[in-house]
Amino acid sequence: MLKIKNYCRKKRLKIILANNIKLAIKLKFDGAYIPSFNVNFHHLNYNLKNNFKIIGSAHNVKEIKIKEVQKVERIFLSSLFKKNKNYLGLNRFKLLSKLTKKKIVVLGGITKKNIKKLQLLNKPEFAGISFFE
Prior knowledge:
This protein has 133 residues and is α/β, with parallel strands linked by helices. The protein has a single domain, classed as TIM Barrel. It has 4 helices and 6 strands. It has a 6-stranded parallel β-sheet.
C-alpha cells in the first residue's frame, strides 16, 4: 500500500478508497467513495481534513437524497448509456440530475461515439471504463 501511495504522491494523483472512509482517513488518503448501496452515516462523526473528498454514486431519487445527507461532494449518476438494470437514458438522467445541487458526474457506457451527447446535459464531468478502453 505504501508503494502505491508514494507513487501517487510523486505523480500528484489523488487516492480515493472505496467504501471505507475510516481506513481512508487512517491511511491519510485524499478521500473516499461511498457506493450507492452504502447508506451508513457513521462518517459524519469523523474528524475530516478540509481537503478530504467524499464522493458517492446513485441511480435514483432515493439514493441521491441519501448521498446528500452523507455530505458527498460529487454524485456519480448512472447509467446514462449502458443498458443495464440501472439504465436511465438521457431524459431520466437529466431529470434526476436536477434534483440535487451537488455536482453530478456522468457515468455509464460513455464511448467516443456517444460522448458528444453529453453536451445535451450540460455536464462537463464524466467517468467511465468504456471510453478509455
